[in-house]
Amino acid sequence: MFTLRQAVFGLFLVFCLTPWASPPVALALGLVLAQTVGNPFTAHTKTLTHKLLQFSVIGLGFGMNAHAAVQAGKQGILFTVVSIFGTLVLGYFVGKWLGLGRHVVHLISCGTAICGGSAIAAIGPVLRAKDEEMSVALGTVFVLNALALFAFPPIGHALHMSQNQFGLWCAIAIHDTSSVVGAAAAYGNQALEVATTVKLARALWIIPVAIGTSLMFKQKDVKVKIPYFIFGFIGAMLLNTFVPAVRPLGPLLTHLAKIGLTATLFFIGAGLSAAVVRSVGAKPYVLGALLWVVISIASLYVIIHAI
Predict the structure, then answer these.
(1) Please, what's the largest Cα pairwise distance for the chain?
(2) How much is the pLDDT for 252?
(3) What is the mean pLDDT of residues 249-260?
(4) In Å, how far from its chain's centre is CA 182?
(5) Where are the domains of the chain?
(6) How far is 183 from 169, CA to CA, in rounded Å?
(7) How far apart are CA 111 and CA 288, in angstroms?
(8) Closest by alpha carbon to 203, among 291, 111, 137, 91?
(9) Which of 203, 240, 255, 269 is least crowded, fewest Cβ atoms below 10 Å from its Cβ?
């Protein structure tokens, strides 16, 4: 027999797999579940979220053109470099002002600067961060991600941003890949292509930042976790561009990837219970919110006036 929690979870998940669900709706359903009956499969969804996001991102590559992606990547590289280092420096000083521990400050700053939970998961072992420090950083980033997914598309429409502008803004100002792709997909296909390409190029900065972290914090004999799924995305994009036999499969694989992304956001929302949100405390949210607001407004201003 199914319990009430399992039945509600199953119904919500099935709805997220239908054409009527969108990434923001899926996240909202997950949040509703977390605040009411709760997630009955917490351990399973945590593991599945990571894998499903990776496969979904690879699948999106089958709907993209390598030539357009290179152009988008060139356009976003200067924004990427300036915003990453600016965020890390600002995070250091704001964190010091708030009196937060160096590890928590660096994890939240890296999550904001690069790619949310993936960056935190990669940088944490380099820092030899404690479990509670990782939890605080991840909780902060995931809550702000949820807000961004709902807030960005209406702002983009209100400012009459082009598909290219909005995709670039999402890639720079939203932390996690899942929310970047979700917000961009809600705005349009071109925004999705630009956002995914720039965000994944940005995610590769995990490697130099992790190496810099090990030197700055004087950590020895640590392994850097490389986001290999990015190379899967690149491979899928190259196949779709240069192998004609693959192109007919592109629409199907892209459709399945978008469904996978929608389910991923449902799982993320289902993990954000009130207890998780409260456990973080106020100061990490202040740090995360300040960094997020600064990078969002600064990048928005530059993109609107320069792109």
Answers:
(1) 59
(2) 93
(3) 90
(4) 9
(5) 4-306
(6) 10
(7) 9
(8) 111
(9) 255
The model's pTM is 0.80
pLDDT digits (tens, 9 = 90+) for 84-93: 899 999 999 9
Side chain identity, residue 197 = T
The encoded tokens of residue 81 equal 């470099």
Q: How far apart are CA 29 and CA 35, in angstroms?
A: 10
Residues counted in the chain: 307
CA distance 182 to 225: 25
Secondary structure of the chain as H, E, C letters? CCCHHHHHHHHHHHHHCCCCCCHHHHHHHHHHHHHCCCCCCHHHHHHHHHHHHHHHHHHHHHHCCHHHHHHHHHHHHHHHHHHHHHHHHHHHHHHHHHCCCHHHHHHHHHHHHHHCHHHHHHHHHHHCCCHHHHHHHHHHHHHHHHHHHHHHHHHHHHCCCCHHHHHHHHHHHCCCHHHHHHHHHHHCHHHHHHHHHHHHHHHCCHHHHHHHHHHHCCCCCCCCCCCCHHHHHHHHHHHHHHCHHHHHHHHHHHHHHHHHHHHHHHHHHHCCCHHHHHHHCHHHHHHHHHHHHHHHHHHHHHHHHHC
Residues 6+ apart with CB under 8 A from 23: 149, 181, 182, 183, 185, 186, 261, 262, 265
The token pair that represents 58 in the structure block: 């690879």
Given a cut of 90, is residue 301 above it in pLDDT? yes
| Average pLDDT taken over every residue of the chain | 86
